[in-house]
Amino acid sequence: MGRKRDASRDATILDAAISILAEVGYDGMTMDMVAVRAKAGKATVYRRWATKADMVLEAVARMKREQVDLDNLPDTGSLRDDLLALFRPQPMEETERKLRAMAGMAALLSQHPALAGTAHDALVAPWVEANRVLMRRARDRGEIPGDADIETVAQITPSMGAYRTLIRRQPFDRAFLVTMVDGLVLPALGLPRKSPDSPPTTGAST
Amino acid sequence: MGRKRDASRDATILDAAISILAEVGYDGMTMDMVAVRAKAGKATVYRRWATKADMVLEAVARMKREQVDLDNLPDTGSLRDDLLALFRPQPMEETERKLRAMAGMAALLSQHPALAGTAHDALVAPWVEANRVLMRRARDRGEIPGDADIETVAQITPSMGAYRTLIRRQPFDRAFLVTMVDGLVLPALGLPRKSPDSPPTTGAST
DNA sequence: AAGTTCCGGAACTGAATGGTATCGAATTAA
DNA sequence: TTAATTCGATACCATTCAGTTCCGGAACTT
Predict the structure, then answer these.
(1) Chain B residues in contact with A167 (beta carbon < 8 A)
(2) Domain housing B156
(3) What is the pLDDT of residue A38?
(4) Strand D: which nucleotides have any atom within 7 A of a protein Cβ?
(5) Is the pLDDT of residue B42 over 80?
(6) Does B126 touch chain A (CB under 8 A)?
(7) Residue B49 has what pLDDT?
(8) For burial by CB atoms within 10 Å, which of A9, A41, A71, A153 has the most?
(9) CA–CA distance from A123 to each of A177, B91, B100, B161 (Å)?
């Protein structure tokens, strides 16, 4: 007996939490902010999660599902096109938001290093994995040399993206992605650099 | 008249601030912590800086001076040796500490994006600049192709180091540096990959 | 209809903390 | 010697905020 718990409130609250996390960070986020933005009472929040940390943890873990669809990766026959197409269905703004949420968790990570794993698994690992798959395919079809260090190269775009977003505070846009792919990823894999008809230096000036 | 201000207290306090910043982050750091670790009274701290943010800002800005000595870079004639020698005089632990301090500032950066510039200039920019200088030299002496995107490649090690330290929470050690140089930096510049006698994949396994 | 659990909202509590004020001792200059 | 200013230490204040409790109303079960 009794009223059923409205499951749709969970998602609303977690969405609000992620947004605020990305905006002001873990310590800057108050439970009142989250409740207000989700148009929920604090009691409703605390009925679902015992502590602020619990709530944030689930919010971050949930993002994993919205990540790159590993079962449905682009397959154009060209590694370069595949890498660029990775950001086609899901706009880059979403990636930037995730990276900022990760930055917002930095304070949490300092105090609870175990959470670093959760955050990484949810926000970065699937992205690295997608790169890895695309590069292995390219290697198997002979597009890139067999001795390339795919494991390491697959981390370039995520880590440079994090650096750019979190520290440089510059946008993760298409120009940046192209610079990464043409200027770093493909050369590191042993492919010839693009001809100078495409602007070589877009990455960052200072 | 009156007692002179003891200038040596400044450095002691700022050192304590940086250490604590690296350990628990900006929000986790309390002024009492800093005072206790520096064996100073809070009045002594507030006599020097009006607010916590002011103190942290000066602490971070001060690290710039201890950075890589741009006027005395290694010059072995081999880019690879130069890049590896960059971490010879100053041990890697110090680099890791700086990166952690940067992570500790993440919360601050969210709220005051202007500070991101200060932090970047002090902690990362000199490092990128050093890489840039070494690579330009290598290009000028014909060791690497002229069309390499030095600007972008110079950011690889700093950004991958930040990713590894802050998000993966793994050590910034020599093996990692070697993986970066041999697996990414040199190949991206158009140099042949190392022969497989050196382990190709050390970067990170997930 | 009755009883139970949920809802959003608001008031409340207890702890933490930035910043201020004050203390006695030490240092320096006049 | 005396006055001014520093020092480390501690007490204090005002605010913020995580978490609790209560409310009136809505929804679901029996």
Answers:
(1) 102, 109, 116, 119-120, 124, 162
(2) 67-206
(3) 97
(4) 3-11, 16-23, 25-30
(5) yes
(6) no
(7) 97
(8) A153
(9) 18, 31, 20, 18
